[in-house]
Amino acid sequence: MCAQILAHRRRKIHLPPHSTAFSPFSHSLLFPALPLAEATMTSIVDPALAPDDSGAAVSPEELRRLRRTISNRESARRCRLRKQRRLEELRELASVLRSQNRDHAGRLGGIARRCLLVRRDNDRLLAEASALGRRLVDLRRVLALPHLRLVAAPPPLAGECAYFIAGLTSSAAVVIGGSGDIPVLVALLGIDGS
């Protein structure tokens, strides 16, 4: 094989100036990693371009250099093929990741919309709970008012009952004038007496 490469290096390709076509022989010169069979080459190649078998001796150093060159070319070809395969794998992976990214972005948008709806509902429910809490306090005041009112005995004893109850609760109660002579006691717990 090395002798064949040496012979190819010594040959010159003679293409007509108007021809741009490659012959099998010129192909092997351009791409020595893909040699054609010798029988095919000798049958196709012009006899003028046939290798000269003058028996030129090849030095061991030249032979090692040629083997190293061939080995380097093969190694470079394998490296290019590996890189090409890796590039294709990375392109496929990038395509898959872009697709997954679009899916995730769509799901994230849906989740963000649902989160916004939940926040709005939460704000509405908090406002409603606050309003209901205020209403409950008002209702408790209204319901507690009859229990805090004490109706005194008939008019002759009204003054004595009011004095007695006022003495028991001291500053916690106030005698408010009611209808007629009946005094009404209301606890001073922040309740409007009206």
UniProtKB/TrEMBL annotation:
Gene3D superfamilies: 1.20.5.170. The keyword Coiled coil does not apply. One of its GO terms (biological process) is positive regulation of DNA-templated transcription. One of its GO terms (molecular function) is transcription cis-regulatory region binding. PROSITE patterns: BZIP (PS50217), BZIP_BASIC (PS00036). Residues 62-101 form the BZIP domain. This is BZIP domain-containing protein. The keyword Transcription applies. It comes from the Eukaryota. It holds the Pfam family bZIP_1. InterPro entries: bZIP (IPR004827), bZIP_sf (IPR046347). Keywords: DNA-binding, Nucleus, Transcription, Transcription regulation. One of its GO terms (cellular component) is nucleus.
